[in-house]
Amino acid sequence: MAIILDKTKTLFTLQTDHSMYQMKTGRYGVLLHTYFGKKGSIFDYSYLVTYADRGFSGNPYDAENDRTYSLDALPQEYPTYGSGDYRGCALKVRYPDGSFSCELKYKGYEIKKGKYTLPGLPAIYETEDKTADTLIITLEDTRRLFCVHLYYGVFEKLDIITRAVCIENHSDVSLYLENIQTACIDFLYGNFDFHTFYGRHVKERTHQRTPLAHGIQSVGSTRGTSSHQYNPFFILSEKDTSEDTGGCYGMSLLYSGDFLGSAEHDQYEQTRCLLGIHPENFTWCIKPGDSFYSPEAVLAYSDEGLERLSHIYHRAYRENLCRGIWKNKRRPILLNSWEGVYFDFDGDKLVSMAEEASRLGVELFVMDDGWFGKRDLDVSGLGDWIVNEKKLGCSLHDVSDRIHALGMSFGIWFEPEGLNEDSELYRAHPDWALRIPGKPPVRARYQLLLDFSREDVREYILRHVCQVLDSAKIEYLKWDLNRSLSDLYSASLPSDRQGEVAHRYVLGVYDMLEKLNNRYPDMLIEGCSGGGGRFDAGMLYYTPQIWCSDDTDAIERLSIQYGTSFGYPVSTMGSHVSKCPNEQTGRMTPLYTRGIVAMSGTFGYELDPGEMTDEDRETVKNQIAEFKQYYNLIQYGDYYRLTSPDGTKSWHSWEFAAQDGSEAILFAVSLQIHPNGPGCWCRLKGLKKDRIYLADGIEYPGDVLMNTGLPLPAAKTEYDGIRIHITEI
Ligand code: DGJ
Predict the structure, then answer these.
(1) Is the CB of 719 under 6 A from ligand 1?
(2) How confident is residue 674, by pLDDT bands cut at 50, 70 and 90?
(3) Is the CB of 527 under 6 A from ligand 1?
(4) How far apart are CA 466 and CA 470, in angstroms?
């Protein structure tokens, strides 16, 4: 059992293979956080807590005049607003009298075999090995109106601890949640760097490492989705932590809506990290007898640098978050129609693209936006999920049949949450759009969003999506969303519950995705939001892959995929070879390089194969064969970031090594060309030091490849790509 209780039953120690987490019920019933980090002796780590006279910091009433007991200074497991702790809080509740101050006292605990689940929310699950345990600690507010159940899932082998919170109103009055953070971690000391993943549309998840300074540093989203701008995942590392040395902590939220992640360095040089739903657009009324569940957070610690931390998340998300038959099945190599033809196609054009693609070895043809309603541009038709047979020149069934006759499978694009004002749906149901009566709505990409917090709206959309899916043989669905939420208002909720719309919307999206997964268990669903605007661990529970970015430029993709790799496995990153010059940047990049970048994700193409030269066709055939050959190594091997793609090195390189160290594949792209330039070597990782490997026709001992490195050729042209397969002999 990975949950250990001491004799006094006040000290809770959670252990994974390499990490440890500890809490203690302290004096006055306060639940203290006493340790998170490297696995060590089971010991009462509360000895580290300093008690000193804390000026201008309150003391709990029960502490009488003990000025050394202040929640403003103590490490807490679940700090609340108004308790005399003036740092960021995990919980703020509006009581019936309009006040907000709340204090929690320890009430009890429960330990269960297996992993808890969360109603209507994504959660890490236990696989057949059944190695997870659950601890539930219950706290009660001192006014005795509600309980707080803190959930901990301990996955020993995965080296992760999951957390979630349930607030249960056992009073006879309604309570209003104003802020509920899923997880808080208080560090008593440490000089940390804060790693976040920022971006914008067509430039998502750029890795940023900044020193923590006094005050609060935070990332978050109030856009209704997890967003292109910041990701609900961050890392706190020691100053000297590198890819393979030093301590670091990861906090990742399984949530696809507004979030806030923060790190606060306080007056006593302590650090508090919080992660949960962003409180900006959130209030939730809990009626008497009702409960509210927070989304889940996944915590991990590595004392072997960032790469080990990433490996922990890669494994957990690949094996214990993604679900369904596609979790471990080779995903089909696809051709998506978007950048090839945009809205300009008919059935014959699609089939001719598929014909060309099938000759190259592509396995799935995806018809993107433009096949329904009056949809020849993005200004109209969204929401009208009726096949435009006039445009196609045939039925969907015909298109699908003709594509299947080529030996390929067929996929289709939807944007279930969106609608244009110029659509039959909007004309029939204007009140179904997210908008505030009397206020002109904010438009984006000429469209509005449907009120997905409403069951009737979701049911209508689901029915129409299913009608299309049932009308032909369809094996893949791309679920897109092309704007952020605004005008949060739902006609179905009273005025005092409008603060629930944003979260209810996310629950609505999850509800519909769950229903689709249940109804079409064999279908591969790919998530998308204008590329990676909703690339988060919450979506991965429903869609095992997500289109990583609308930026398909291979060189831009280096930093997007590099940043994404800190928290997510390559099996989740939708990545395609697109045409040159690139549609977003105009850049020319060799097809070979575009191939190795795309195959470091879920591989596909996004161009019109009819426009390719014969030489390119041959290259593509080889690429596809190579991808199939190296698929297991790439998807299930350990991924190593060998360099940063910041352009300071001539070659930017990354590697996949088999978990048993028997083989590896090295990819590199030249970012700098120097005539008469210096030599370049690449230190490999994940090999067995005492075995001999063959690389580029030469035999090397494993320790040599890892310690002194493999010589790389001088790059001749910008953006050259190389691939070297290293095998144990
Ligand atoms: C945004 C997506 O990211 C693209 O791949 C494409 O599907 C368009 N939407 C279609 O409108």
Answers:
(1) no
(2) confident
(3) no
(4) 6
Which of 204, 338, 551 is the pocket-test mutation for ligand 1 (most atoms within 8 Å of CB)? 338
CA–CA dist 67, 80 (Å, integer): 19
Flag whether pLDDT at 205 surpasses 90. yes
Following CA atoms 587, 589, 591, 596 in sequence, which dihedral angle do they give, to the nearest 10 degrees? Answer: -110
Q: Tell me which of 225, 414, 547, 549 to substitute to probe ligand 1's pocket, judged by most ligand atoms within 8 Å of the beta carbon.
A: 547
pLDDT confidence of residue 26: 84
Q: Domain 640-728 belongs to what architecture? A: Sandwich (2.60)
Residues serving a catalytic function are 480, 550
Residues 6+ apart with CB under 8 A from 697: none
Residue for token digits 């020993």?
Answer: 156
Phi, psi dihedral angles at 367 (to 5 degrees): -90, 110
Residue 700 Cβ inside 6 Å of ligand 1? The answer reads no
Pocket test for ligand 1, best of 528, 545, 575 (most atoms within 8 A of CB): 528
Q: What whole-number distance in Å separates Cα of residue 508 and Cα of residue 337?
A: 29
Residue 136 CA, ligand 1 centroid: distance in Å: 42
Contacts of 675 (CB under 8 A, 6+ apart): none
Q: Quickly list DSSP for 157-225.
A: TTTEEEEEEEEEE-SSS-EEEEEEEEEEEEESS--EEEEEEEEETTEEEEEEEEE--BEEEEEEE-SSS
* C-alpha 617 – ligand 1 centre gap (Å): 25
C-beta of 370 in contact with ligand 1 (< 6 A): no
As a whole number of angstroms, the distance between CA 17 and CA 419 comes to 49
Domain with CATH 2.70.98.60 in the chain: 3-320
CA-550 nearest atom, ligand 1 = 3
Q: Give the tens place of pLDDT for each residue, 492-523.
A: 999 999 999 999 999 999 999 999 999 999 99
526 lines ligand 1 (CB under 6 A): no
CA proximity to 402, closest of 340, 470, 353: 353
Instruction: Tell whether ligand 1 has an atom less than 6 A from the beta carbon of residue 531.
Output: yes
Q: Are strands 192-200 and 233-238 parallel, antiparallel or unpaired?
A: antiparallel
Is 3-320 a CATH 2.70.98.60 domain? yes
Percentage of the chain modeled with pLDDT above 90 = 96
Number of Cβ atoms within 10 Å of the Cβ of 215 = 10
Measured in Å, residue 415 CA sits from the centre of ligand 1 at 9
Closest approach atom of ligand 1 to CA 413: 7
| Pair of tokens at residue 330 | 């080779």
Question: Amino acid identity of 221?
Answer: S
Is-contact 552 600, C-beta < 8 A? no
**CATH no. of 334-632:** 3.20.20.70
Residue of the nearest CA to atom 2 in ligand 1?
A: 530
What DSSP string runs through 582-649? -TTT-----HHHHHHHHTTSEEEEES-GGG--HHHHHHHHHHHHHHHHHHHHHHHSEEEE-S-SSS-S
Q: Is the beta carbon of 661 within 6 A of some atom in ligand 1?
A: no
Which protein residue has the closest C-alpha to ligand 1 atom 1? 530
Per DSSP, the residues of 431-487 read: GGBS--TTSPPPPBTTEEEB-TT-HHHHHHHHHHHHHHHHTS---EEEE---S---S
- Outline which parts of the chain fall under CATH 3.20.20.70: 334-632
Residue 350 has pLDDT above 90, yes or no: yes
Could you tell me if 121 and 274 are in contact, meaning their C-beta atoms sit under 8 angstroms apart?
no
By DSSP bridging, strand 334-336 and strand 602-606 are: parallel
How large is the average pLDDT for residues 204-219? Answer: 98
